[in-house]
Write a structure and sequence with these properties.
about 375 residues; eight-stranded mixed β-sheet; binds the ligand Cc1ncc(COP(=O)(O)O)c(/C=N/[C@@H](CCC(=O)O)COc2ccccc2)c1O; about 15% strand; four-stranded antiparallel β-sheet; 14 strands; alpha/beta
Length: about 375
């Protein structure tokens, strides 16, 4: 039979309220003819920036004016634009294991990029201080991909480091903050920032869907001034009809309702998957059980290497990714165990037992 997926790279859109979205789109078309006929503001329509700034103030404690919000068709193009303003030979640091697509982007932009190891509180502050980068990329809310939720103490240490000298910024990539199961949602790093050192990055890829390509940055005032000077010629990259529809979707409460509904749905699938994995693999599996996000990390006792596991997964028609994808220096050790990233957005609840069976055949 067909493929099954334990991929971490999809949203479960089977429950997206397309009917409500289209209602909002009808209102957007009816009430905003002039906006639709015009070229929007380079940062996106003010109305939408206001709605986003109000929402993230409520849900994430982010302090900002609509003026500081920049909307764009994805985190990568937004970061490429803002970081592209920087002068030469900039030093950047990123979590390792971490988000290799940003690592590639920074290298592509001729930044000097340094992967930095994690300790149990997130990025290793001693290594950050030793390296002294200009830009530090972190995912404090739910470290990607290990899941570590950065404690307040480490957040304060990082903010003190960033404030200790000019020209240091922390990019807080908050992409996986909306899904927390039972554990409380620690406010954003940006909400603790007293020295305008944090660039906050958010996205609707996980709460709506990645194909919509609606993401945003919140710039501190001095970077915003530089941005407006540099990009006065800029034409915004996102689709204004989609953005104004999003505005109504949020204002109507449909967005918050959907996120709540998806939290419950994902929590149920996550629990079922973990139960099935523990039952099948017994003490050959060790699950990093952080109650958040759309995936978790699992360690399996095996003497098979990553290459063989990937080949066997293809043969078993099971889509799944390993820690190799996130090890930025590509030097993942092979030995008595392998580490896989197990996503549960893309698997139907009723297919979980079959998927776990296939995973067992992949590994043993
Ligand atoms: C750390 C991090 N930050 C931001 C983003 C989002 O970027 P944006 O969509 O441009 O705003 C991702 C998306 N990462 C993607 C790829 C991960 C990988 O390569 O292994 C996975 O994205 C999704 C996952 C689940 C549901 C929907 C999307 C990010 O992993």
């Amino acid at each position: 039979e067909g493929w099954l997926s334990l991929s971490h790279m999809t949203a479960d859109i089977s429950m997206f309220p397309f009917k409500e979205w289209m209602k909002c789109e009808k209102i957007a078309i009816k009430n905003h003819k002039n906006e639709l006929s015009d070229i929007s503001h380079p940062q996106g329509p003010y109305l939408v920036r206001k709605t986003i700034s109000r929402m993230i103030a409520l849900t994430r404690g982010v302090k900002c004016e609509p003026e500081q919000v920049i909307i764009g068709p994805g985190t990568q193009p937004l970061l490429r634009q803002v970081l592209g303003m920087q002068r030469e030979n900039i030093k950047a640091a990123i979590e390792n294991p971490g988000y290799s697509r940003i690592y590639q982007l920074l290298k592509d932009m001729n930044f000097e990029v340094f992967p930095i190891d994690l300790d149990k509180k997130g990025i290793d502050i001693k290594k950050v201080e030793a390296l002294n980068p200009h830009f530090l990329f972190i995912t404090p809310s739910h470290q990607f991909p290990t899941g570590i939720i950065m404690p307040i103490s480490r957040r304060i240490e990082l903010l003190n480091w960033a404030s200790a000298s000019e020209g240091r910024y922390i990019v807080e990539d908050d992409y996986d903050s909306e899904f927390k199961y039972g554990t409380d949602n620690i406010p954003s790093l940006q909400s603790l920032d007293r020295n305008q050192r944090v660039i906050y990055a958010g996205t609707f890829s996980k709460t709506i869907m990645p194909s919509f390509r609606i993401s945003y940055l919140v710039l501190p005032p001095d970077l915003l001034r530089e941005y407006k000077r540099h990009f006065s010629y800029w034409i915004q990259g996102s689709n204004t009809l989609n953005l104004i529809t999003l505005h109504y979707f949020i204002e109507s409460g449909e967005y918050a309702k959907h996120v709540k509904r998806m939290n419950n749905h994902y929590e149920m699938k996550r629990e079922n998957l973990i139960k099935e994995l523990k039952w099948k693999f017994r003490n050959d599996i060790k699950i990093k059980n952080v109650p958040a996000g759309l995936h978790f990390i699992a360690e399996f006792k095996t003497d098979k290497g990553y290459k063989e596991i990937e080949e066997r997964a293809k043969k078993e028609k099971l889509e799944i990714y390993s820690m190799k994808r996130f090890n930025l220096l590509g030097n993942i050790e092979e030995g008595k165990k392998i580490i896989l990233i197990i996503g549960f957005a893309n698997i139907k609840n009723e297919d979980i037992p079959v998927a776990v069976d296939r995973l067992y055949r992949v590994i043993y």
